[in-house]
């Protein structure tokens, strides 16, 4: 599990890579924590290099989204692998993250 | 419970220090072994003779009144007449001869003469080879006399000096260790152990809570045969199930709080109690889901989400009405049930949950489970997955009891996992329609 955070043209691109499972969730949470406190931040979560995501990780992603929006920012998920998409579909979260 | 040594850091430290003490004493004795042997074979007569021979030179040195007087007895030659004769010269610390050379009838082992007392009243002479003596001369007017022979080499000899330093260092280290361990290591270890104990207790309590929260009295009647298993992971999670037969309906709820630890267990317990109180009444499936969703939203300060799958089977019509909130896909006879993906509970209070229905038949078997099953990992980190689960159910003898079916699945999972650790709770409900 690796988190790459890059800022491009005012957008913070967070790329979660590898496997986001029960063991690595805590690390991912620590990695994104500073972003959750930033004001008016546009965050794009790139999950194209995420091979696996446990449903436990959803809690962190949802909290991440809520924190960013609450601080006046915008949050979207771009590029998702099929396996990760399945988790979003199964938990009914696709609608709230992938409106388009 | 049996008390282990590791539970008592003080005892452990004392034992370690005792071991250290024994070890260092052993090493020291070993180092000093030779010297000890030599010191026991001192020949006093020889020493007296040596002293008599040397007395004039010692007195000569004393006359110098040099506060830092320090001299060597240096062997010059050995002459063989009728008797052997050994020549010696006394040199000061700068190597200058400070007394005329003299002869002795046998080899003198004295090599160094040292003034120990600044007033020049006390002389120490070191004899190499393991022998030594002390010459005390309290008053300059009195002749030199041998007051005593001490095991001087043992205490102050070259090798012994090293040993002495060694012992000193060991003793200091010992003291340091004692002080450090007593005031720092022991309290720190005790604090850590206490924290660990507390965490373990908390974990055990959370586990107990989890086991109390799930159904243990499996309903069986002429219509249904059911069984369930909750296999908690090392770190307690939030898997939950409750089911029972009420008003001619087999009612069930299975869920998974998306976190671990005591908070997850507590939320799970709250949900369990709530279900327990609600399923007694007649409540439409989707309304129960909405109520549970509200309950979890009410506790949203914990940031918990929960997948839920709940419903009931009418024992007369065998129609199952169910509602899914982001939960794993239920298997019916090895095929996945058509389950609308609805938002997992705890996120949106207004979410319009709806229920679905399916017509079941006699002999149908249902498997409800949490993602601990499909996401169980083998030694090669691969997942058990839905396909293997499907294959397991299809390969299962439909005649076996629910209890046997649950055991079969756990065995299959254990074989798949091999030596890998179970890192998530596993909850399964197996329902047979008779």
| Strand fraction of chain B | 25-35%
Strand order of the largest sheet of chain B: 3-2-1-4-5-6-7
Question: What count of helical segments of chain B does DSSP give?
Answer: 9
On the 0 to 100 scale, the average pLDDT of chain B is: 74
Uncertain stretches of 5 or more adjacent residues of chain A: none
Would you give an account of this structure?
The complex is a heterodimer of chains A (100) and B (434). With 100 residues, chain A is α/β, with parallel strands linked by helices. Chain A has a single domain, classed as STAS domain (Transcription Regulator spoIIAA). Chain A has four helices and five strands, in the order E-E-H-E-E-H-E-H-H. Chain A has helices spanning 25-36, 56-70, 82-90, 94-97, and strands at 2-8, 11-20, 42-47, 50-53, 74-80. In chain A, strands 1, 2, 3, 4 and 5 form a five-stranded mixed β-sheet that branches. In chain A, helix 1 packs parallel to helix 2 (56-70). Chain A is globular. Chain A starts with a strand and ends with a helix. The model of chain A has no long low-confidence stretch (mean pLDDT 85). With 434 residues, chain B is an alpha+beta fold. Chain B has three domains: 1-42 and 151-211, no CATH class; 53-145, no CATH class; 214-433, Phosphatase 2c, domain 1 (4-Layer Sandwich). Chain B is built from nine helices and 17 strands. Chain B has helices at 9-39, 44-63, 152-156, 158-213, 262-278, 285-298, 371-374, 385-394, 402-417, and strands at 70-80, 84-92, 97-104, 110-115, 122-127, 132-136, 145-148, 224-231, 238-246, 249-257, 306-314, 319-325, 331-332, 335-336, 356-359, 365-369, 426-433. In chain B, the strands form three sheets. Chain B has a seven-stranded antiparallel β-sheet with strand order 3-2-1-4-5-6-7, with helices on one face. In chain B, strand 9 and strand 10 form a beta hairpin. In chain B, helix 4 (158-213) runs parallel beside helix 5 and helix 5 packs antiparallel against helix 6. Chain B is elongated. Mean pLDDT of chain B is 74; it is low at 36-44, 65-69 and 110-157. Chain A binds chain B through residues 21-23, 52, 54-56, 58-59, 62-63, 89-96, and chain B through 256, 258-260, 303-305, 307, 325-329, 341-344, 347-348, 371, 375, 383, 423-424.
């Amino acid at each position: 599990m690796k988190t790459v955070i890059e800022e491009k043209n005012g957008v913070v691109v967070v790329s979660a890579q590898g496997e986001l499972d029960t063991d690595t969730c805590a690390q991912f949470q620590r990695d994104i924590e500073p972003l959750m406190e930033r004001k008016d931040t546009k965050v794009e979560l790139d999950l194209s290099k995420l091979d696996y995501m446990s449903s436990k990780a959803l809690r962190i992603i949802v909290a991440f989204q809520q924190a960013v929006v609450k601080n006046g920012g915008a949050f979207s998920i771009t590029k998702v692998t099929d396996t990760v998409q399945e988790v979003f579909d199964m938990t009914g979260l696709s609608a709230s993250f992938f409106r388009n | 419970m049996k008390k282990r040594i590791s539970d008592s850091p003080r005892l452990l430290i004392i034992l370690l220090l005792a071991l250290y003490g024994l070890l260092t004493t052993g090493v020291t004795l070993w180092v000093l072994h030779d010297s000890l042997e030599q010191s026991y074979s001192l020949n006093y007569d020889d020493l007296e003779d040596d002293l008599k021979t040397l007395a004039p030179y010692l007195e000569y040195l004393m006359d110098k009144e040099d506060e830092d007087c320090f001299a060597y007895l240096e062997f010059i030659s050995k002459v063989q007449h009728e008797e052997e004769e050994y020549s010696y010269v006394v040199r000061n610390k700068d190597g200058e001869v400070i007394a005329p050379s003299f002869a002795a009838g046998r080899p003198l082992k004295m090599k160094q003469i040292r003034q120990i007392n600044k007033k020049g009243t006390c002389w120490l002479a070191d004899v190499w080879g393991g022998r030594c003596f002390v010459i005390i001369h309290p008053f300059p007017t009195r002749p030199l006399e041998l007051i005593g022979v001490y095991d001087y080499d043992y205490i102050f000899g070259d090798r012994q000096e090293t040993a002495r330093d060694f012992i000193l260092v060991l003793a200091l280290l010992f003291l340091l260790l004692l002080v450090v361990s007593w005031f720092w290591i022991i309290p720190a270890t005790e604090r850590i152990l206490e924290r660990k104990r507390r965490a373990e207790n908390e974990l055990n309590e959370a586990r107990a809570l989890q086991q109390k929260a799930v159904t243990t009295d499996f309903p069986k009647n002429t219509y249904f045969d059911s069984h369930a298993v909750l296999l908690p992971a090392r770190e307690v999670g939030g898997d939950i199930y409750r089911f029972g037969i009420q008003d001619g309906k087999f009612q069930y709820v299975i869920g998974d709080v998306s976190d671990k630890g005591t908070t997850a267990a507590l939320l799970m317990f709250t949900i369990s109690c709530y279900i327990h109180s609600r399923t007694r009444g007649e409540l439409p499936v989707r309304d129960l889901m909405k109520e549970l969703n509200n309950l979890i939203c009410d506790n949203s300060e914990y940031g918990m989400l929960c997948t839920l799958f709940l419903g009931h089977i009418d024992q007369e019509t065998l129609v199952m009405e169910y509602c899914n909130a982001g939960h794993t896909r239920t298997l019916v006879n090895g095929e996945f049930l058509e389950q609308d993906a609805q938002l997992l509970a705890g996120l949106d209070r207004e979410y319009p949950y709806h229920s679905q229905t399916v017509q079941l038949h006699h002999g149908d078997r249902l498997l409800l489970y949490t993602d601990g099953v499909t996401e169980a990992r083998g030694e090669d980190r691969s997942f058990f997955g839905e396909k293997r689960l499907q294959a397991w159910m299809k390969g299962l003898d439909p005649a076996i009891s629910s209890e046997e079916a649950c055991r079969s699945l756990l065995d299959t999972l254990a074989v798949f996992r091999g030596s890998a650790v179970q890192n998530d709770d596993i909850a399964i409900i197996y329902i047979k329609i008779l």
